[in-house]
Write a structure and sequence with these properties.
Layout (H helix, E strand, L loop, with lengths): L12 H4 L21 E4 L2 E7 L5 E6 L6 E5 L11 E6 L2 E8 L9 E7 L6 E3 L15 E2 L9 E3 L2 E7 L13 E6 L6 E3 L1 E2 L7 E8 L2 E7 L5 E6 L5 E8 L4 E8 L2 E7 L7 E5 L5 E3 L5 E9 L2 E8 L9 E9 L2 E6 L11 E6 L2 E7 L5 E7 L4 E13 L8 E3 L5 E7 L3 E7 L6 E5 L2
Parallel strand pairs: 14-18
Antiparallel strand pairs: 1-2, 2-3, 3-4, 5-6, 6-7, 7-8, 9-11, 10-11, 11-12, 12-13, 15-16, 16-17, 17-18, 19-20, 20-21, 21-22, 23-24, 24-25, 25-26, 27-28, 28-29, 29-30, 30-32, 31-32, 32-33, 33-34
Amino acid sequence: MLLESLERRALFAAAYGQILQDINPGTGSSLSAGSNPSIAFNGKTYFAATGYSGGSELYATDGTAAGTGRVADLAYGDASSHPRDFVISGGKLFFIADWSSQYGNQALRAKLFVSDGTTAGTHVVEYDPNTFPQYDLYGTITEPADGPTLVAYNGKVAFAAHGAHPYYYVDNTDTSLLWVSDGTVSGTSYKFVSGASSASSVTNITVAGSNLFFAIKTPGSYDSVGRYDGSDIQSTIVTTFYGQQSVGNFIAVGSSVYFRTSGSGPYDNLFYKASASGSISTSVDPYLRLSEWATVNGRLFASGTYTYDGSVPQQAWLYEIVDSPNGLQALLLGNSSQPYASPTDLTVIDHFIYYDAPDFNSGRSIIRFDPANDSFTFVGYGFSSLSGASADGAAFVKGPDGAVYVNGSTSYDAGLYRLSATDSYFQSYPINV
């Protein structure tokens, strides 16, 4: 791999940008980490930051020093609300922040906020804490370890929340319900799942066409897949998996959603498809186990491993998942003579799939797959390791200059590398920062 140092120039604002305003004077950091740490909305960028007072709160900038400042102090006083999980839906900015309905008399809890971008137009979506009796509308929002907390849906947002009983307004921490909100109290309601256990929890909320699909997990019992079509207050169970299977890893393709199950032995990483009508398709190959997947132009691709004896994994390859008369079929892309085995970090950029795989020298190669003609092209090799290059942890990210970047280590140096498509045999260039 040809390595060439680049001159210092403004390829990424994060690495070469100019400070607009020192929000937190001194050596401490101003910016807050988290899921979806910033978002562009109505001509400004909104983000969480810690100022000289007030803790971590909502800030905005228009790109100038004068236009950079705090929008609202949501947690009151020196407490931090930690705004996060920004989503735009229906022309409004939604996000999660920690808030107390008793102005400090109760612990801060994750709540839904909505904003039009102004201080006056930024508020919690909750009952007025000055009313009596004082109770929560939806309790505490559930923040999953993987996947988004808020999901844009039909001009609203969908989320899961626990801690407020929908009928008696008492705490019930064992239940996590599906909620949909338009940013108003009257327009915020839970979507009762008919047939689900009272101890169930909703996760993996995914939009597919006009439907919301989600997993319903019942501890020590079984998992189900639910569907809400937006027509009424009730959701329905599409299918239930009894025994040792756990449902997760949802991905939408058109109006359908694909998901996988995990468990022990023959239940591990089987894959299924739920259509808009609620019908279920299953894999025709019980020995194929999927680990990652990505969608491009309405097609679903996945890395998968065969376990011919049901337990010992063989080599992993890239597959396309397609419908067949008997169910879901995995079509092998490439062939066993090509060095594209064990793909990981599947990332879609500009209708291509980038991934890394082991090379012949015990390192990592970077490969670009083009779904338009099912072709593979090397974009770099000789990496000893790769790590997240983007804010959400993705290994590959597109820069403002249109190039694709990866954060990795080679025998030359560790840092940010640019993948350049100057010829048919791609090259990786390290960036000195």
